[in-house]
């Protein structure tokens, strides 16, 4: 498949972040990011619910509830949605998302969590990028189970977040935004690496279930370079 042409992302300061979705991952991301990113936009199909949700998470003062259209004021839009819904969102807002960084966290699992809805020749992140030729799509948090998002520390060290993307400036920008968080954030290269990364999540799940630790498991590459770690 030929790669669509994307303009490089050049803005380097004061990036406004939006998180779309108020499920397990959306809530966890809001809780982690709000202390570091004032004015975080939290987008939902039903934003009325988000004021109470933000209060529950202890971040009421630093989060602005928004509908999907309002959330698109952000420079960096994190889609905490299932792949099928992320695709629908991308198709609907492709024009508005042009020139922005779109962070994809989706693993394209079947409903029974036994397999993938996409063939091994692609990934959710690449499929999203194909639909957003004007945006810079960056993959992150694909391996972070929701309970780990709330508490990323393990006896072996903090959980890894693998950040991927074909636009190096956008990838660096996301690494920068995530660096204050209590994870080890690693530059994981091109978007196509999500063909492996997304499959690591399902393998991790299978191993965790077999050994009785699901969902409190995560990946951490031993011996990895420490440049982005805390
Ligand atoms: N759960 C995990 O441990 C985990 C780990 C790594 C990656 N992920 C990935 O993270 C993504 C979200 O997972 P999750 O566990 O947070 O799912 P979830 O709890 O089901 O939340 C998904 C959210 O998406 C929004 N949504 C639902 N249907 C929608 C639609 N038709 N159109 C637009 N938005 C819709 C809803 O938010 P509103 O009601 O606010 O609109 C919903 O709360 C998935 O792609 C998953 O693969 C999950």
TrEMBL record:
Question: Could you list the residue ranges that cross the membrane?
Answer: none
Q: Which UniProt keywords apply?
A: Oxidoreductase
Kindly indicate whether the keyword Oxidoreductase belongs to this entry. Answer: yes
Keyword Oxidoreductase: yes or no? yes
* Stored InterPro entries: NAD(P)-bd_dom_sf (IPR036291), P5C_Rdtase_cat_N (IPR028939), STEAP_metalloreductase (IPR051267)
Q: Which domain of life is it from?
A: Bacteria
A family per Pfam? F420_oxidored
Boundaries of each Pyrroline-5-carboxylate reductase catalytic N-terminal domain copy? 16-108
Checking PANTHER family in the record gives: DUDULIN-RELATED, REDUCTASE
What this protein is called in its record is NAD(P)-binding domain-containing protein
Q: Which organism is it from?
A: Planosporangium thailandense
Specify the taxonomic lineage: Bacteria, Bacillati, Actinomycetota, Actinomycetes, Micromonosporales
């Amino acid at each position: 498949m030929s790669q669509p042409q994307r303009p490089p992302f050049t803005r380097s300061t004061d990036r406004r972040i939006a998180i779309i979705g108020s499920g397990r991952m959306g809530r966890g991301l809001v809780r982690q990011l709000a202390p570091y990113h004032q004015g975080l936009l939290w987008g939902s199909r039903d934003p009325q619910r988000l004021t109470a949700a933000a209060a529950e998470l202890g971040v009421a003062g630093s989060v602005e509830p928004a509908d999907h259209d309002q959330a698109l004021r952000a420079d960096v839009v994190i889609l905490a949605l299932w792949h099928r819904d992320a695709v629908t969102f991308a198709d609907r807002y492709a024009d508005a998302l042009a020139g922005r960084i779109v962070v994809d966290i989706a693993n394209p699992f079947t409903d029974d969590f036994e397999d993938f809805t996409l063939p091994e020749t692609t990934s959710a992140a690449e499929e999203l990028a194909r639909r957003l030729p004007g945006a810079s799509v960056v993959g992150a948090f694909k391996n972070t189970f929701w309970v780990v998002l709330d508490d990323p520390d393990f006896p072996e060290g903090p959980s890894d977040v693998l950040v991927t993307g074909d636009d190096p400036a956008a990838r660096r920008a996301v690494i920068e935004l995530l660096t204050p968080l209590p994870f080890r954030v690693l530059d994981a290269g091109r978007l196509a690496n999500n063909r492996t990364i997304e499959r690591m999540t399902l393998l991790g799940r299978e191993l965790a279930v077999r050994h009785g630790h699901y969902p409190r498991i995560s990946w951490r590459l031993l011996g990895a370079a420490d440049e982005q770690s805390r």
